[in-house]
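Final report, section 2: Outcomes. Of the targets proposed, GDP-mannose pyrophosphatase is the one most frequently requested by collaborating groups, and we therefore present its record in full.
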Amino acid sequence: MSQNTAAPRVVYEGRYQRMVVRGTWEYSERTHAGGLAAIIIAVTPDDEVLFVEQFRVPLQARTIEMPAGLVGDITAGESIEASAIRELEEETGWTADHAEVLMIGPTSSGASSEKIAFVRATGLRRVGEGGGDDSEDITVHSIARDRAAAWLVEKMGQGYELDAKLWAGLWMIEHHLDGRPR
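The predicted structure is given below as tokens.
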């Protein structure tokens, strides 16, 4: 039997992840419905891109990310769009009138079965302070869109870990998926 078709063996299962061995492969799976997360691309009416900063235990470092969260981790059957708006509001204090799924793809196909949906949030309005739920300590950054890439490079120089998906998100602000400018 090849390593691709061997029966999976769960070696650990926690609240949100399980570790699986299949042949010679070791990888993680999300345990919530669908194993999907959403990353939210959000630009305020003042043309500022929303970023979040938080300490990430696996990296033992502060990171800069776009708002993101698990789909269906609170309410089973919740749509990607509803999850994205909920996470945007929870993390940043901004809500959106509309959310559009741009694409879905794997986050780290050699290490995890998790997929992520890039979601564009539009019609933003401020409804609170953000900062995450009781288990999170999130700092919200609203950065002028024309300065966002330079700001990210500065943060990298200051020792922050940057989620590589940030660069794809910035590209999607300016372009349709086929490369045409927005």
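The chain has three helices and 13 strands.
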